[in-house]
Protein: ZP domain-containing protein
Amino acid sequence: MVHRKMESFKTVLQRQKPDVPGKPYVMEVFSNKLPKSAGDPWRGAYSKHGFWYKFHDGEKQDFDKLVALSFEQNGYMLNYDYITAWENAYGISNIRVLVARNLKKELMGGLVAINKGDYTQIGAYFVMEEYRHSGIGSMLFREALKGKVGVIQAVHHLLPTVSNFGMKECYARRFNHIKIDKASGFPDLQESLADCRVVLAESFKTSDWDAVSLFDREVSAETRPIRELLALEDSETAALFDDKGICLGFGTSREIAGEGVRRIIVGPLYARDQQTGEILMKAILKKYYNPDLDFDFDPDPFAIYRRIVEYLIPAEERVLPVIEKLAGKDGKLSRPRMWYQMILRLLAQLLLLPIVVHSIPVDNGVDGKPEVECGPTAIQVNANTQNPFMGHVYVKPRFVTKVDRAYRISCFYMEAAKDVSSPMNVSELTTANVERFTQMPICRYDILEGGPNGMPVQYATIGQQVYHQWICKSETIDTFCMLVHSCTVDDGKGDEVPILDSNGCALDRYVLNNIEYPDDLEAGQEAHVYKYADRDGLFYQCQITIHLKENEECPRPVCTDLSKQFAAVAPSRSNAPHQSQTVQFITAKDSYKRNLAKVSRLIRVQRSTSGNADKYTLDVRAELTALDIVQEKPFTSIRDVCISEQWILFTIVLFALIFLTMSISFTTLCCATSRSRSSQTSIMS
Structure:
């Protein structure tokens, strides 16, 4: 076996064509000499024209991504709530989302397959325009219908490929996708019918839903949970009933996101005749026609006479005239290049059908090929019968007998097209720069005594309650929001412990609980003082992200409830901060003024060379010195000791004075005695 060297991953990535808004889709064909099945980890992957892709079972978010991509290309009528309606109708376990991803793990296309018991229906699919020529759609269908009886609701360009899946067209209903720009014929539509009532879905009774389901079964040839399927957001459903409660038709209009103004889609719309179609159309579009409340200075963006409305309706003579009448004289009709068609039944399933019993003879049938006449407004088909025939010819939507014949008839009309152009030069407008600068908020981080109204502290002993406060001041009101996150505490020597994660959620409620936000630019939380075992200093550092306030509300992080948590942050660290039961603060106004620069520092803009830092993310810091608890003697004992020492000193001084006084007195007495003796001696002499 000869092993071929595969291309490098970088080379394959360069070949993937990105979706560049505003530019045409690239449809270049690449030569690819690699085998269809690549090696690990892409064994079983597919490639065509140089585009590699692999299938994965998707989830709700993958379907939402397909819807968003379809909005960008504005080519398909998907919406986010469709999959919810399908899950409610058929059960979550019966809904499968299948997606194709390239080597970049980007979505290239996908579909939704609905398991309906005896068969599987592909109800929605989307492939990005620049990848459609790579055959992703066909491979998606083949993957979803492996070993299953299938039903495909698809656009007409897929009809030639259904035979590749072992399928044939057994029963089809065509749908036109029509757009009307600025319809003007709404007032001319018929509004009511004698002995009939038109009812909106919110007023349906159970009997009304039963009648609608019966009518839908006659139209679609299958039993569908129509009530759940029509329960779409921002939709309006109406039905027409006769005096016996029989449904004569129903229709739905809905709003779909995707542009500056939400798109309005009408469909389905099933009616027995043109009158019924007009009544239903007027009922479901009535809320978009309010000329009395519409003014040029305050226009109604949803008014159907101001905008484009899209219609997905059966291509039948009883419905198409309704569209033409609604367009009126001023409305402009257009049809996109894609129109929809329903293809039912696998060929394998047809082979399982019972053979028609030949004991019931049919004595007539079509003889030879029919003749087709293509007219300007109609197509006429002439056929010969084996025996004389007196009756009517019908298109049979349900049963097929042995004498029935199916024909595909096409008429081609030559049309001339000529481009007429007239040059005109238009000068560019002079642009003027209008700038406005808004001062970013100034933020600070304080550690306060007791609560949010306390004084900033620098020294505290272990265990006492303090309040961590983050406040930002802004010149503008109701403009900014703040988020405190990525907080750490360290001992100044590099021993760092995280206390808030990047989402702003606490990691250990015994160190610091989840942050509370009493205001848009204010956050705080109570905590108890702790310290490292061998160091007194605590250095806190947090990040504050400032962003603009949207929808008059500031988003807050949704964090896990830590009320049942027992473990502390980093319990295995021997020098991690520890806690106690009592605390004593050493605070004073003079100390506060003298140490304010240490307690709270102004923010600085975080600068990072990695390119991942948010330019509106700020660093704030605070410091705290935690003191150990000293086992002190009672105050009375200290006072007694001090008093005893004072008495000893006083006694010593007193005795010294007495001794000094006695010494002086004794000296004086001795001197007096000496003088007396001298006098006596002199007298005797």
Observations:
- The radius of gyration is 45 Å.
